[in-house]
Structures are given as C-alpha cells and as structure tokens.
Amino acid sequence: MVKVYKMSSDLQTQQIERTNNATIEDVARHAGVSTATVSRLLNGKGNVAETTAVRIYHAIEQLNYVAHAAARGLARQKNYTIGVIVPDTSTYFLVSLLRGINETLEDTAYSTLIFVTNNPLSIKSGQPLPLGEHNTDGIIVFNRLVNDETLRLLERRGFPVVLLFRQPPANSYLPCINFENYQAAYDLVTHLIHNSGRRRIAFLRGQVSSSDSQLREDAYRQALQDHGLSCDENMIGRGDFRVQTAEQVVQGWLHNGLGMDAIFAADDNMAMGAFNALRQAGKRIPEDVALVGFNDDLPSRYLSPPLTTIHAPAVEVGYTAVSTLMAQIDQRPIPHNIVLGTRLVIRESCGSHKNE
Amino acid sequence: MVKVYKMSSDLQTQQIERTNNATIEDVARHAGVSTATVSRLLNGKGNVAETTAVRIYHAIEQLNYVAHAAARGLARQKNYTIGVIVPDTSTYFLVSLLRGINETLEDTAYSTLIFVTNNPLSIKSGQPLPLGEHNTDGIIVFNRLVNDETLRLLERRGFPVVLLFRQPPANSYLPCINFENYQAAYDLVTHLIHNSGRRRIAFLRGQVSSSDSQLREDAYRQALQDHGLSCDENMIGRGDFRVQTAEQVVQGWLHNGLGMDAIFAADDNMAMGAFNALRQAGKRIPEDVALVGFNDDLPSRYLSPPLTTIHAPAVEVGYTAVSTLMAQIDQRPIPHNIVLGTRLVIRESCGSHKNE
DNA sequence: TAGTACAATGTAAACGCTTACAGTAAACGC
DNA sequence: GCGTTTACTGTAAGCGTTTACATTGTACTA
Question: From the Cβ of A47, is strand D under 7 Å away?
Fold first, then answer.
C-alpha cells in the first residue's frame, strides 16, 4: 500500500495547548449567578429572568463552555443515549439495521452510540463494557457479541438489553428479535429443487455461533430429505459470513470436483464470494451452478445475474429493537420474543422464473 | 414489509424491576474496607493484600458490581476511548476505515465509540455533542459532519480532533487526512481518453460539500481540456455518493439521449448505481459505455465486468487517523496535513487492457 | 534497639453537573 | 394593610469514582 506523507504549506508541526476548560461554575461566576441558575437555564427547568439569561449565554460564549455530558449523566442518572454492539462483517445488512435504529430515534431526545467488535464482550471483576449505564440507557446486542454471563449480570442489574438474532441465554428473559429463518430457507431450497431442477445443492454456513446459520442449515437438511435427496456432508462448507472465506471454500469445492449444481449461501456476503469463485473458474450462473443467498443486501440485485435471495427486513429490526428497548427503559411491559417475517426474492441466479 | 409478532412460549410479558445497583461503596462496606482500597485493586495501583483482594472480588461478585465508567472518567479526566463520527453512506469504504481504526487500537487500552449521522453536528449554547470530552479523549470526524464553528470551539478547548477528507476550517490548525484525489482522477480520465478512446465522458459527482468530489471534478475538467475535449455541463450529474441517486441520474441521461461513451463516477457506490442503470437499459459495459469509479470498494471487483477504479487506502486512513489523534492526546507534535497515495486499478469496465 | 523503609489501608477532597429545598422580593387579592 | 402567591435565585447535598496525603503496623538495617 503506497503511503505518501505531505506536509501542508506551513511546515512546522504544533502542539495543542490544553486550556483549563470552563465549567458551569466558571460560567456562573462570569455571569454573576449561581450554578443552579445556569443549569436551570440550560435544561429549561424552572424560570430564569430574561436579563439573566442573556448574561449567562454571553458567558457561555465567552468561555467556550460545553456541558460535560458524563457529569450530567451522573447527576441525573440518565443519558438519553442508546448503545448498539455490532460485528464488522455483513456490512450492507448492518448499515440497514443502523439506519432503522437511527430513523426510529430521529424525533426523540435520544442518540445512538455504536461499538464494533468481533470478540464477545464480557464484564470481568467489575470492569465496565464500552457501552453501559455510564453512557447509555440501554443496549442492543448483535448475536453473541456479549457473553451469556454478562448478559445475565446486566439483566440482574436491571439494565435494558435487547438481543438480536439469537435466543435468550439460559435463565434469562431478555427480549430477542429474530428473522423467520427456517421456513424461508426451506422454501428457498425447495424452489431450487422443484423449479430449478437442482439435485446437488451445497450449503455455505456462517459462524457456528450463529443461530441464524444453524436454522438455515436445519431447513436445508430437512428440505433435502423431504424431497428424497440425501445430504452429503462434504457439501456443507464452513463459512463465517465473509466474502473472502466463502470464496476460498467454493474454490476448494471446485478444485476437488465436488460437482454441485447449486449453492445456498447462508447470507448474501458469502453468496458474493461464491459468485466470484464460480466466475473465476469459468462456471456459468445459473446454467452450471445456481446460486442463492439470504438477506437481500443492496448489492445483490446488481450482480449479474441478479441474486435470488431471501429478503430479511433489516431496517425493521432496527425499528423493533428500539421500540422494545424504549419500552424497557420506560418500564413498560415488553414481549420476549419477536419474529420478523421474511420473503423469497426470486431473481435470475437460481435459474428459474423470476418473481420481481 | 411484512411484520410478524410472535410471543414466546410463556406469553406473559414482564417488567424488569430496577434494583439499586451496587456502587464501589457497597463493595467496600461488604468487604470491610474503604473505597480507596477497592479502587486501587480494580485499577492495579498501589498494593492490596492478597486476603483483602479475595474478599473484595467476592463482594463484587455477590453484588453484581460494575464500575461506573462515567464517574471514572470524571475523576481521572480520561476515558481511554476515541470517537468517530461518520455518515451512513459509502458503506464498504466506511467499514474498511473503521477496521483500520479498530485494528490500530487493538493492543492499546483504548476502545472506539462511533456515531453515525448525516446532519452536521454543532454545539449550541453549551450543549455537548454525542461524542466529546465526557466519553472520549478525542474524535475523528468524517468530512463536514461537525460544523466549522464547533470545530474551532473544540480546538480552542484543546480537545483532540482529526479531520478526514477535507481541509481545516478557516483559522484552524486541526490535522487533516486526505487522499491524493486530483492526480488519480486526472490519470483515470486520461486513461479513458487515450487507452479506451472515449470522447464523451460523463461525470457523476458527490455532495457539493465533499472536497473529494470537487477535486475529482476539477481533475476531470482539466483532463478533458488538456486533451482538447470540451466539457459539456449536461454531462455532469449531481449525485450524493448513493447508489440509488446515481442510478436515477444515469437513467435520466439515457432517457434524454445524452449519448455518453463513458461514465466517471466519483465513487464506487455511484458506479454501482450507474452500472445497474446501464444494464437495465441494455447497454453493454464497456462496449457501449465505459464505467469507472473511485475507492476500490470490496464489491467492485465482483461486478461483471469488474470495475476499473482508483484504489483509495481506507484502512490506512484509519491507521493514520488514530496515530495522529493519539499524538494529540499525548501532547506530541502533529503534522497538519497528510495526503495518502492512491493508485489506478484497471479492470475491465473501462474497455482497455487491464493491469490486474 | 532505635531508626528507617515499606506495605497496607483509610480520609477526604476533588471531578462537573442536577435538583430538592429554602429564601427573597414583588405582585396580587380582598 | 396583610396574607398569599409567584417569579427568581441561592445553598448544598448528592451522583460514583480516583487519588494525594496521612496513618498504622511490621520488617529490615546497622
């Protein structure tokens, strides 16, 4: 990777000198009032005389005052912020999810903080998570990105949590939001068999920790069985919802002459990897190998041929997660388990009539 | 969008009852020591007797104690966290950037908090930003997502800030990181003219607020001029770095019979939109219309034909941004302006010999 | 054995804010 | 003219930590 450093026209570098930043006390002194009055003005609680307000605003400007949100949070025991913990894979899907969350929060006083990680978080000997009661009023957690024990701990502390794409840990009643995986996957595989006449269908799974992947695999196996096809374990590839891994797996299959006539990738990312491996090997899609995915990510329809997949309402998940979290925050009753419907999107990559 | 609510087997909903959460004081009392000792143990400062430590850890477990990071931040004036403010467009590119940031921070005590927005943030009458000194030790800001006045305010307060893909505001010395836009774009357009023999090259721009887009456009214009081609203003389309917008613009062009033989999209997202519009209209790429982008996002090589574009080192930006921010945080001198090199990636969509 | 060093702990003052409570003066009702 | 409201403001106690400083007892030095 080429790296070029260029200094701007004024070549000298410079240090930023730390000033003693103004606090509410400085503002109060400068305006000749007490801190309580400043606080009241800034929070719109109680009334403040017009002339006083002017003096205070003036002081704020003079001193470059910015309220310290953490001190605020400490004092009011409330942050007006929700947290989201997500992996750094499944990009398009995640963006839709985050958009759903942001849009739902748009007209409220809340904002969102996001933490990205691929290693499950846990609280060890009292050390806080990057997102917790200190900076948020509740969190939305993707899959297994916070470990079960920690989730139970948070639940015991009464900290609002919503789980995405998994079941609650044992002995826990944390609310979960899932897609309707099984039926959709079953229908998709059935479509491949019935409408596209495929017999040797391979499956590309995601992480073992993903219940989504597991359910899709279960449905795949059942569909094969129900249609009198045997399931060859060699035709189940271990992926991780990443493009590159999927690409390698399919390259391996091709190299070993696996001879599949269709690939069901557990998500569109992996379908994209498979897509590329097939193309590189000169295979035609869908003539030689049919290809289908799951999620209906934005780019999927732009592939050529466009990808047959299952539409999973990511934005909707964001919306639902926020509603559920808010209910918890406001101490309203919440449903434990929400399942969002999915829908088959037949395009061209599966080699049969398209429906859109 | 179909929405299905299903309650889990136990149908009753339930409220989480808020317990009075344990504080360090509770832990101290429970273990029969002072809060100072607990704090010392948890932070590994000073020494604590083995037996005492055991008692304290036990108390922590008993009480489900979790340290309150905000109180901590207040007391130590340090958060061990950096903030990143990004838009919700340009997805793949952003993911690479965030990965660069995360990877750089991996072995440090720091973690990252992300805020996603499309409306520039500003501090009005002392109200803090979602990311600021209360929860981070410095922030990385994408493009114009924080307004100039606020940036100057932060600079005056001595709060570390690194700007991405823009120049510093007037009267400011905040460090900026940019791509080498002009030369790369110039080379790309030149390639289209010389090697692919195109004459009617259209340009799809991003937001007007984007200096990247502006520079790429400047280079486009200059390249046309330098090769004796006139620039038709109708061939410059207003995009916003989004797939759909680009798709519509190109559809409009096609509908109006603009008759271009090449399209230079200011980023790969828009190239993807153009790609789809062309295909829908039955245009062949590159035979009828050559297509090139900027960024070299992950999916670009998977399009068929694979997209000719300019590789922009997104991961490297993350790395550089973090280093620069850390230097500021540690009060070390920093460079004002860093320009990262870019590189032409000739694939097939431009209709000339490929180099990879 | 007196003196010193050090390990282990406690005390209490920050950190920057909010807010319950109390106080004052002017305006009001009758 | 007196009691009552109302608008405005101040005082001070938290919120949950960290940490400088003080204190104690014990082990070591000479």
Answer: yes
The string of pLDDT tens digits covering residues B261-286 is 999 999 999 999 999 999 889 999 99
By the 10 Å C-beta count (0-12 exposed, 13-18 middle, 19+ buried), B156 is classed as middle
Interface of A with B in 125-144 (CB under 8 A): 125-128, 130-135
Average pLDDT over residues B98-111: 92
Q: Which of B68, B316, B334 sits opposite A134 (nearest CB)?
A: B68
Which residues, listed in sequence order, are joined to residue A146 by a DSSP beta bridge? A121
d(CA A287, CA A101): 40
Place B15 in a pLDDT band, splitting at 50, 70 and 90.
very low
The CA distance from A167 to the nearest CA of chain B, in Å, is 10
Contact between A59 and A30 under an 8 Å Cβ cutoff? The reply is: yes
Q: Given pLDDT bands bounded at 50, 70 and 90, which one contains residue A163?
A: very high
- CA of A212 and C1' of C17: distance in angstroms? 45
A73 and B335 within 8 Å at the Cβ level: the answer is no
CB < 8 Å from A in window 316-355 of B: 316, 328, 331-343
pLDDT, tens digit, for every residue of A118-155?
Answer: 999 999 888 999 999 999 999 999 999 999 999 999 99
Contact B19 A156 (CB under 8 A): yes
How far does the CA of B62 sit from the C1' of C13, in Å? 30
Nucleotides of strand C within 7 Å of the protein's CB atoms: 7-12, 14-20
**For the segment B64-79, what is each residue's pLDDT rounded down to a tens digit?**
999 999 999 999 999 9
Amino acid present at B279: R
| Backbone conformation region of residue A77, classed left if phi is above 0, alpha if psi is from -120 to 50, else beta | left
Which candidate, A178, A244, A5, A9, places its Cα nearest to that of B339? Answer: A5
Contact A316 B3 (CB under 8 A): yes
> Which tokens in the block code for residue A271?
């379908």
Q: CA(A218)–C1'(C15) in Å?
A: 55
Three-state secondary structure string covering chain A: CCCCCCCCCCCCCECCCCCCCCCHHHHHHHHCCCHHHHHHHHHCCCCCCHHHHHHHHHHHHHHCCCCCHHHHHHHHCCCCEEEEEECCCCHHHHHHHHHHHHHHHCCCCCEEEEEECCCCECCCCCCCCCCCCCCCCCEEEECCCECHHHHHHHHHHCCCEEEECCCCCCCCCCCEEEECCHHHHHHHHHHHHHCCCCCCEEEEECCCCCHHHHHHHHHHHHHHHHCCCCCCHHHEEECCCCHHHHHHHHHHHHHCCCCCCEEEECCHHHHHHHHHHHHHCCCCCCCCCEEECCECCHHHHHCCCCCEEEECCHHHHHHHHHHHHHHHHCCCCECCEEEECCEEECCCCCCCCCCC
Nucleotide nearest to B40 (CA to C1'): D18
Chain B 7-26, CB below 8 Å of chain A: which residues?
Answer: 7-8, 10, 13-19, 21
Distance between CA B242 and CA B255 in Å, rounded? 20
Residues of A in contact with B155 (CB under 8 A): 16
Query: Cα–Cα distance between B142 and B163 in angstroms, integer?
Result: 6
**CA-to-CA distance for A92 and B11, rounded, in angstroms?**
34
Residues 42-101 in B having a C-beta less than 7 A from any atom of strand D are 42-43, 45, 65-68, 71-72, 74-76
Q: Is the minimum distance from the CB of A70 to strand D below 7 Å?
A: no
pTM of the entire predicted model: 0.90
